[in-house]
Design brief:
By secondary structure, the protein is of the alpha/beta class. It has helices at about 10-20, 70-80, 95-105, 115-130, 155-165, 170-175, 225-240, 250-255; strands at about 1-5, 25-35, 60-65, 85, 110, 135-145, 175, 190-195, 205-210, 215-220, 245. Strand 1 (about 1-5), helix 1 (about 10-20) and strand 2 form a beta-alpha-beta unit. The structure holds nicotinamide-adenine-dinucleotide.
Length: about 260
């Protein structure tokens, strides 16, 4: 039986994960972490990113969909307690990403900006298309619900990384996000990002490869958070008994 702790259990993804775990063989949710105790499932009312001693029962593995500052506290707990970690939170800065990679030298970590299988097929297709359509202008458009706090989304950035690596450039050097006012003409080789926020949009991502006389669009639409929850659980089960290391969703899906 894999004993799971859910970080951000009171949030949208936390609820989707909780639902997904109910009735699933071989998996038991033994604790949850959140500061919004009034929205938690019955029996999970701990607020303990700072106080791990309050854990209802120590898990074998945490699945985290929260905020970067909370994830960093959980990462620290995991390293001290040899607990595996599935990280779905987005919006980490470069320093936090470095700390996560360092921690993965001592514990197994799977990190993915998007746990849907469809998005990860999309990333592979973008990598391929960006290499073949090397001279095309790539624009990435993403849309999410009104409560999302980071932009561009982690998935949009992963799409940009997939294209940049196919073109042998660093995304930091070619990324243009949030154009406004007198921007001048588009720079050759840049990768543009646009973010839409509104209503209850679960997550939509489009890569537009624009050339003279034609345009190729690759698009993914998530209609339910269950797809992310199921993917994160799949990663959790894959991570069981793995050696310490920094793993991606391609490792989980066997696409590497
Ligand atoms: P949400 O706001 O609904 O839930 C986040 C939860 O974390 C909240 O209940 C909040 O109270 C809790 N939390 C935040 N900071 C905390 C702290 N310091 N201590 C304790 N609890 C804390 O957000 P969401 O829509 O569930 O998304 C959560 C994260 O997951 C975001 O970063 C989002 O981008 C990401 N996400 C990733 C995927 C993926 O497939 N990787 C899919 C969807 C969302």
């Amino acid at each position: 039986m894999l004993k799971i702790g859910i970080v951000g259990i009171g949030g949208r993804m936390g609820h989707a994960l909780w639902d997904c775990c109910q009735g699933m063989d071989g998996v038991k949710v033994v604790c949850g972490i959140d500061r919004m105790s009034d929205t938690l499932p019955v029996g999970f009312n701990c607020d303990l990113a700072a106080e791990p001693a309050l854990l209802k029962e120590a898990p074998d593995l945490f699945i985290d969909f929260s905020r970067p500052e909370c994830s960093m506290a959980v990462l620290d707990y995991c390293v001290k307690n040899h607990c595996a970690l599935v990280l779905g939170t987005t919006g980490f800065d470069a320093q936090q990403r470095e700390l996560i990679k360092n921690a993965a030298k001592t514990i197994p970590v799977v990190m993915a900006a998007n746990f849907s299988v469809g998005v990860n097929v999309l990333l592979n297709l973008i990598h391929k298309a960006a290499g073949i359509l090397a001279d095309s202008d790539l624009e990435i458009v993403e849309a999410h619900h009104r409560y999302k706090v980071d932009a561009p989304s982690g998935t949009a950035l992963a799409m940009g990384e997939a294209a940049a690596s196919a073109r042998h450039v660093s995304l930091d050097d070619v990324m243009v996000a949030g154009r406004d006012a007198q921007t001048g003409a588009r720079q050759y080789g840049s990768i543009g990002f646009s973010s839409v926020r509104g209503g209850d949009i679960v997550g939509e991502h489009t890569a537009m490869f624009c050339s003279d006389g034609e345009r190729l669009e690759l698009k993914h639409i998530a209609t339910s958070r269950q797809t992310f929850a199921a993917g994160a659980l799949r990663a959790a089960r894959w991570l069981e008994n793995k050696k310490p290391g920094f793993y991606g969703i391609n490792d989980v899906l066997g696409l590497k």
